[in-house]
Amino acid sequence: MARAALYRRLAEPRLVEALADTPVVLIHGPRQCGKTTLALQVGKRRGYRYYTFDDAATLAAARADITGFVARLERRAILDEVQHVPELFAALKPVIDTDRRSGKFILTGSSNVLLVPRLSDSLAGRMEIFRLYPLSQVELARAKPRFLDMLFSAAQEFPHAGREGKQLVERIVRGGYPVVQKRTPRRRQDWYANYVETLIQRDVRDIARVGSLAALPKLLTLAASQTARLANLSELASGFELSRPTIHSYLTLIERLFLVEFLPPWFSNRVKRLIKTPKLHFGDTGLACSLLRCSAAELDDQRELLGQMLETFIFGEIAKQVSAHPERIALYHLRDKDGYEVDIVLQLGTSHAGIEVKAASSVGERDFRGLKRLREILGARFHTGIVLYDGDHVLPFGDRLLAVPLSALWTRHR
């Protein structure tokens, strides 16, 4: 399955638009999610020369004389895996300031430069950044991503999609990395094990000095088991003979590599009982299940873990569609001290929508408890509240509240 054909419908139009009015575009995301494919897909047709810092000779030349390396670049160039050469950002600045024409450079990186302010600030106003994720289910279905438009529309004509059943668990365990989509479970497990080893032995060493590399696989596994829960540093640190500040720095490191993500809390100064702790989500449920050595059958038997993995899976699917949406949509979660919670809160302008995720094939009034609380807080700014469940039908549950099949996120619409 060619990733180029899949991503052309989502990320390529925004990338082409950015190249038309921005000197530098950075595509960043985890290793093996398709950044290079996307860059080449866009760049080769437009005469870009390709360089990768995964190549030892190219990397050595850039590190020996970064100013000279940049000066000799062609008018248009793709620079792949730029996290290996952080000094590149400062070196590009004078070149761009001398010639501010758009579309000069496409950069790709497997480390989040937004978490290193000195890097991103060096090209402030000169660079547009795209976050690329592993494949979404809507891409794999070769469908158009219409869920967000329907969520914030007046009509909200969600499809009566079919129940997923066992297929849903298979989707979660497989994850979204392109290379594993056709692999058997055993071969998939082998790939994920090699993936983690490569990240730790190569990328981690490049971007940080880590005193105990052996602790990182254990921390990753623990983070996988804590996905879709409030980030609790004390709980994560309890299994290590390391200080809380060290564990915090390690978490920041794996966040930089896009292996975990922290969903910020939604809060209002008018509501005093809201909890302001972010929620931890693992970057890919396939990798998370692999770290936990959890097969589809085992995950299906562990209902609590399945609930966590499903919430993270759906959060990832929504985040992927948000990243390709033409309008800016912010994502949060909500929880208060009285036990009301909403898994995902989406904000488009002043309009808000809430989403609760449920693994069961039935839905009841109590499942809307948190959404009703959000509606009460927001009033007219509350657009809709949805419980995503593994059912067949779109069902109304009162004022601006609906139950919607999970598969509406990726179903082909007629």
Structural commentary:
The protein has helices at 3-7, 11-21, 35-43, 56-64, 66-71, 88-98, 117-122, 137-140, 147-151, 166-174, 185-207, 215-225, 233-237, 244-256, 285-291, 296-301, 303-323, 369-378, and strands spanning 24-28, 49-52, 77-80, 105-109, 127-131, 229-230, 260-263, 279-282, 330-335, 341-348, 351-357, 382-389, 395-396, 401-405. The chain is globular. With 414 residues, it is an alpha/beta fold. The strands form three sheets. Strands 9-10-11-12-14-13 form a six-stranded mixed β-sheet, sandwiched between helices. Helix 10 packs across helix 15 (285-291). It folds into two domains: 3-131, P-loop containing nucleotide triphosphate hydrolases (Rossmann fold, 3-Layer(aba) Sandwich); 137-409, no CATH class. The model is unreliable at 1-8 (pLDDT under 50). It contains 18 helices and 14 strands.
Major β-sheet annotation = 6 strands, mixed
Head-to-tail CA distance between termini:
23 Å
* Strand line-up in the sheet with most strands: 9-10-11-12-14-13
Rg, Cα atoms, Å: 22 Å
In the predicted model, the low-confidence regions spanning at least 5 consecutive residues are 1-8
Strand residues, percent: 15-25%
What's the total helix number? Answer: 18
Specify the helix fraction band.
40-55%
Count the E strands: 14
Shape: globular
